[in-house]
Inverse folding.
């Protein structure tokens, strides 16, 4: 009776060490990323509304808000719990990223155990790329895509665990309720994931009734999901109103970001992709045929399957263009999805139970993610899902009766892991995904403000912002309204002033008002101060509203007060104010606007 537990202890220790290594490695990469860059535009888009929520404002009701609430709510709770101190949010990202890598590893293990040789080693190898391509490794600040991927991974892991436990009733219902959660972290991800789960449950129930299979667990998941939706609807109704929530998170949000069908399908219009798919499927066919044959035959088949994964690494030595290098790595997504569908549902079909639905669920979820910024812009936070798809792919390939298959599968796992790690490390280091901001220009700077401890970025943005906060603390009473254009900084988060205007970040996603409407609302409000930032970190013209046009509309109502290093300070005109100096009239912050 004691021999069996003694045999298990080495595996328990190995699993604990592997999990700790994945968690710590991923967290270290996220922390390191935060020591070398800060993306003010996206960071302000999360922490400024979160600060507003921490002060008691309700999104959708008190201010326009085109996002799902949970990421912002989590950050508002961090602010309320610990006060606005920036490095606390970095710790949050490190923890979520580390846990996501561990979850991806456990999902991979549950998918392949009993189906692939050396499941512990293979699962660890396939999870290793998540250390450099974890959910928060590319973009290391609090954001909704990484959080949504984490919740999806949690759902998948619990689904596989509950299946292994024979679907205990209470846990199965709770799991169904959890399926609803991604919808309230990121709309497009949650909708795609939830729709895929719903379709799978429907098909499974219909097949169960037809073939006399057990259907109670699947009905329990449906009941849990419906209960979860009902609870969410009640919370939304009493917090902000269902109509408000629907308008801002669906009607308005889709009008600003919904891509065309051509853009979505364009990722598959690539001759290189067709060539890689053909090569891999040819190698897979040879592998299945020669798995019991000579060693060189299995080696040729394995090489043919490995080449598409090695290609992004080979390309690192062929081209110094970081954008082209990143394209080769990101090109793994459509390639893996195509070959997985072909092997899982057309030829091999060696999966059953929940694993049979995973290819469909993962691919549907990935395409839901692409609804935001298509393949190039949307994959940065969901790389763990790709590695789970790779694990399912290897499961399809393995022939338990083939004497060469055991070694070949392990070799293929090593090659894929090493290739994705190498190409992924280059992708993360170059930060080509962040080409829309000038994150790597100038000397490294750190803020002197206690609220921004842990923030690091190149250029003069942080010293300039410190000067702005010092000036406003000394010259602007805390009860007077301030409007910042375009709102790229963590001003309200840092100062803990309350915004007096519905919009804090004037960009195409957040701002529902045209220039005339902004002017009208400012005129009708108690906005007393206008602060215009001259040099912006963001460089993408199509992402930020033109602050020059907004400023020109507002300028007649304000008089120039002061010029700081990167900010122009304007104050509302009142009867009896002194006339502007000529020099003040020429102080137009829009002259150097990179967003025009």
């Amino acid at each position: 009776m004691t021999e069996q537990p003694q045999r298990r202890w080495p595996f328990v220790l190995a699993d604990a060490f592997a999990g700790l290594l994945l968690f710590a490695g991923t967290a270290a990469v996220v922390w390191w990323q935060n020591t070398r860059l800060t993306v003010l535009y996206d960071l302000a888009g999360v922490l400024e509304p979160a600060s507003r929520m921490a002060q008691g404002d309700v999104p959708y009701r008190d201010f326009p808000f085109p996002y799902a609430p949970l990421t912002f709510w989590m950050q508002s709770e961090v602010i309320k719990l610990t006060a606005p101190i920036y490095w606390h949010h970095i710790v949050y990202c490190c923890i979520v990223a580390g846990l996501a890598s561990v979850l991806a590893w456990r999902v991979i293990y549950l998918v392949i155990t009993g189906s692939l040789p050396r499941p512990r080693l293979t699962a660890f190898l396939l999870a290793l790329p998540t250390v450099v391509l974890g959910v928060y490794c590319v973009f290391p600040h609090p954001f909704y895509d990484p959080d949504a991927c984490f919740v999806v991974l949690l759902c998948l892991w619990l689904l596989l665990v509950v299946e292994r436990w024979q679907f205990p009733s209470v846990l199965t219902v709770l799991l169904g309720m959890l399926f609803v959660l991604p919808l309230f972290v990121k709309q497009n991800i949650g909708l795609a994931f939830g729709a895929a789960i719903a379709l799978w449950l429907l098909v499974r129930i219909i097949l169960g009734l037809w073939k006399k299979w057990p259907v109670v667990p699947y009905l329990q998941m449906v009941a849990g999901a419906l209960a979860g939706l009902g609870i969410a609807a009640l919370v939304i109704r009493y917090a902000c109103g269902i109509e408000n929530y629907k308008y801002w998170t669906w009607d308005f949000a889709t009008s600003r970001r919904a891509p065309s069908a051509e853009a979505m399908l364009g990722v598959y219009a690539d001759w290189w992709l067709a060539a890689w798919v053909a090569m891999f499927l040819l190698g897979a066919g040879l592998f299945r045929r020669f798995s019991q044959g000579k060693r060189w035959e299995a080696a040729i088949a394995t090489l043919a399957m490995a080449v598409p994964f090695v290609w992004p690494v080979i390309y690192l030595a062929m081209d110094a263009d970081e954008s082209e290098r990143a394209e080769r790595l990101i090109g793994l997504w459509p390639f893996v999805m195509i070959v997985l569908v072909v092997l899982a549902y057309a030829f091999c079909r060696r999966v059953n139970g929940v694993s049979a639905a995973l290819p469909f669920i993962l691919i549907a979820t990935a395409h839901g993610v692409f609804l935001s910024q298509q393949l190039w812009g949307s994959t940065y936070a969901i790389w763990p899902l790709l590695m789970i798809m790779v694990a399912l792919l290897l499961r399809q390939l393995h022939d338990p009766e083939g004497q060469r298959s055991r070694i070949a599968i392990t070799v293929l796992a090593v090659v894929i892991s090493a290739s994705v790690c190498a190409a992924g490390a280059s992708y993360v280091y170059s930060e080509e995904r962040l080409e829309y901001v000038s994150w790597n220009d100038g000397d490294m700077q750190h803020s002197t403000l206690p609220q921004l401890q842990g923030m690091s970025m190149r250029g003069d943005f942080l010293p300039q912002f410190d000067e702005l906060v010092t000036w406003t603390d000394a010259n602007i009473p805390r009860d007077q309204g301030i409007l910042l254009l375009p709102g790229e900084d963590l001003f309200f988060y840092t100062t803990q002033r309350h915004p007096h205007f519905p919009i804090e970040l004037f960009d195409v996603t957040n701002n529902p008002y045209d220039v005339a409407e902004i002017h009208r609302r400012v005129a009708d409000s108690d906005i007393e101060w206008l602060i215009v930032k001259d040099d912006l970190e963001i460089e993408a013209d199509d992402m930020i509203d033109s602050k020059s046009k907004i400023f020109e509309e507002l300028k007649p109502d304000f008089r120039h007060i002061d010029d700081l290093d990167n900010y122009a300070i304007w104050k509302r005109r009142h009867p009896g104010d002194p006339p502007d100096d000529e020099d003040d009239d020429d102080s137009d912050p829009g002259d150097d606007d990179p967003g025009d």
